[in-house]
Amino acid sequence: MFQRCPIIRRLFLTAMLLPIVTFVYANPPANFTQAKKKAETIFKTHRATLYCDCPYNEKKQIDLLSCQMQEA
Question: Quick check: pTM over 0.85?
Fold first, then answer.
């Protein structure tokens, strides 16, 4: 199938190799501080806690009433 169409073969090989290359260059954070900084940039547009999905503001204050909580 791929012998007749070299373009499809190249696309297939690219699709197979791309995830491998992506994982090789993905560096984990070296410490907790770096992990927090990365998490802030990832979740900047999604301001909700990871565990109970409660919204929080730019000052990192959780809106407890929206989660039916009185205190945290």
Answer: no
